[in-house]
Amino acid sequence: MVPAIFGLSGLSLGQDERAFFKDADPAGYILFGRNVESREQMRALTDELRAIHGRDNLFICIDQEGGRVARMKPPVWQAYPPGEAFDRLYDIAPATAIEAARANAEALGLDLAEVGISVDCHPSLDVRQTGAHDVIGDRALGTDPMRVAALGRAILAGLARAGVAGCIKHIPGHGRAMADSHKELPRVEASAEELEVDLQPFRALSDSPIGMTAHVLYTAWDKENPGTLSPVVVREVIRKRVGFAGLLLTDDLDMQALSGTVPERAERAIGAGCDIALNCWAKMGDMIGIAQRLPTMSEETALRLQRALTAVGDSGTAGDHAELIARRDALLAQAAA
After folding, report:
1. DSSP code of 276?
2. N- or C-end of the chain: fewer Cβ atoms within 10 A?
């Protein structure tokens, strides 16, 4: 198995894609708006992915946070609020905000489970910082690290009740970035002591089964390499100081924060200690290059992947979708009162 997650080009698998995935045997797949049209279409697509290698328990992920980060959108699916909505409610009633975040995530997770998605790249545990770039902005769960952790734990619990695994991101923190890593490499010059604030939510939720790195240069830890490609950040900060022992994905390797070809980036990320290289854009040349460059998945990564996929049950214990939405809305209304 190749330690990579690949994107798909359209609403169904092309013949070349199917043949490549059959041969390469990637760890999983990621879906985007270009892969989303209807419930029936998405279920057919995820069923087809599972059929390639006969794996019912397959890593199929999506970015479905709510707010401006949503691949599944109205009118087919519900619109979900951004993290900031729960942060505002927390100011008034912390326990109510936690329950609202959990109910919201459970309803969102039911949408995902219904169409065969097993992992949501959510929640963002990035601690919001005044004056930072808006790439995180209202996606954040707050400026206080323990509030971020409390709301993040509720989101993970809600997703799990729906039978979907969450993924904490962007370890070790994107909240201080003054640039959008989709477009350029952010450089964070905070001291190691200051960065402890950023680490706190990740440390509090270090038992999460899945995490995602940040394409950010932290000069206090490594003056040369962004977090995703830094052995110091991955092995010393994420694994040891944070204590994260789960499956560690890179952020999308196609982002302009990184240099070199995409296959070279993947090789460097795995060499730095990441478990899985995430390549989102379904460019066949890049995917073939990644499959050729990367080693076979290690036993340690295979075990982490297995644990990630078995960490949550099915959606049989979840509540009713409409009731969850109504409960969330009633709770959120307290912030507007």
Report:
1. B
2. C
